[in-house]
Each structure stands twice: as structure tokens, then as C-alpha cells.
Amino acid sequence: MRIKDISKENRPRERLEKNGVHVLSDAELLAIIFKTGNKQENAVEMSDRLISKYGIGKLNELSLKELQEIDGIGPAKSMQIKALFEFNKRHNLSKVNNLPIKTAKDVFLYASEKLSNNKKEHFMVLHLDTKNKIIKDEIISIGTLNASIIHPREVFKSAIKESANSIILVHNHPSGDSEPSVEDKEITEKLMEAGEILNIKVLDHVIIGKDNYHSFKENTL
Questions:
Q1: Closest by Cα among 70, 59, 107 to 204
Q2: Residue 170: what are its φ and ψ, rounded to 5°?
Q3: Degrees to nearest 5, angle at CA 81 with 73 and 123
Q4: CATH code for position 69
Q5: Torsion angles phi and psi, residue 128, rounded to 5
Q6: Which residues pair with 214 in a beta bridge?
Q7: pLDDT value for 86
């Protein structure tokens, strides 16, 4: 069935205009982004198939190439999906960007938007001012962490340049398990010692898992 064959009051755009965006299903919302379907499905049917098969979370994790391997999804629709999730990510970040970091959960809420779906380990440093607000975040390393790659010089170079009062170390575990490795503990200890020498305190090291996190500070490590 084509969208124009659906009664006007039941079409996604008309329902949104009349009743508000909150009344639409997930499939209807995605259909509005897509605008069109294909010869076999209208936009709502295509969206419903995608969400039923992959779920919203899985769609977010798929690359452009993986999305385009799905029946009915070409370059344009795959880019629409990626743009949709990226816009949502940036909206979530905008809500926490200007708030002070008070707990490891605040770090998790900020950093998980950027790190949790990455398939490689990303080591990030958050630079904080005297009120514990984030001045800047910086990715120092991508790939398996080891002490030779995570050098204090690279970690603190930007912190000195930005006149950061303190820093928080963050990295993700693609496995989803946030428990620290021996290497994680060694890196943390080395960077804390360097921070003391430079008078830039390392407040915490937070490891981001799938839907969880590990805080060195909260676990007295």
C-alpha cells in the first residue's frame, strides 16, 4: 500500500500536524525521515520492518556499509539513519555540556554518547575548569591500550594548553565489560603520578561498558 492510499487522517505527517509528534510510533517517526519507501513497501512498512528486525539500538550501531546491505536501504536512506542518530547524540550532549561533573555517572552520561558504540578502544581525556565544567574533550588514542601508547606527554599536553584545573580519564571497552584490566590500572597509576608532578589532578578514570561503567575513584583504585 502506498502512503497516498492510506486515509489522510492516518498518514504520519498529517497525524503529527494534528496531534503532535508524541502520538507517532517509532516506525512512523522514521518514515517521516525517509519520506519514501520502495516499490514493495511504503515508508512506514519499511521502517516497521527495520525496527522489528534490528531494533533502534542495533540500527544505531550499524555502519553505512552495513545499513546499505539491508534490503531497500541505499546510500540516501543509510545516511538519513546515521544523521538521525548523530543529531540525537549531539542533542543529548548539549544537555550535559554546561553542567559540572560531580560524579562518575555524569562522566558516563557524557562520554557514553561518544564512546559506547565504538568497536575499538578510544582513550579520551576530559579537561575541567575550577568549577568542574568540561573545557574540552580529546581522544588521545584509538586501539588496544598499553602503557607505551598512553604517554603522559600526550595526555597532559592539551590540558596544559587549555589551562585545565584537573582531568578525567575515560575509555571504552568494546566487549561491554567495564571491569579494569591490569593494563588499565598501570596506566591510571602512571598518569596520576604525572598529574601530581604537573599539579593537574587526575580526578578519576572511568571505563565505559555497554550499559555500565567502572569508576576507579568510586572503587578506591
A1: 107
A2: -140, 135
A3: 125
A4: 1.10.150
A5: -115, 150
A6: 207
A7: 84
In a domain, 155, yes or no: yes
Supply the range of the domain harboring residue 74.
3-93
Q: What is the CATH number of the domain that holds 172?
A: 3.40.140.10
The string of DSSP codes covering 2-58 is -GGGS-GGGSHHHHHHHH-GGGS-HHHHHHHHH----SS--HHHHHHHHHHHHHHHH
Residue whose C-alpha cell reads 587526575 in the numeric block: 202
End position of a domain, from candidates 58, 93, 128: 93
Weakly modelled stretches of the chain, pLDDT under 70: 1, 4, 93-98, 145-149, 221
108-146: b (≥16 Cβ within 10 Å) or e:
bbbbbbbbbbbeebbbbbbbbeeebebeebbebbeeebe
Burial of 71 (0-12, 13-18, 19+ CB in 10 A): exposed
Give, for 92, the enclosing helix (H) or strand (E). helix 75-96
What's the pLDDT at 188?
Answer: 93
Count of structural domains within the chain: 2
Confirm whether 220 is domain-assigned. Answer: no
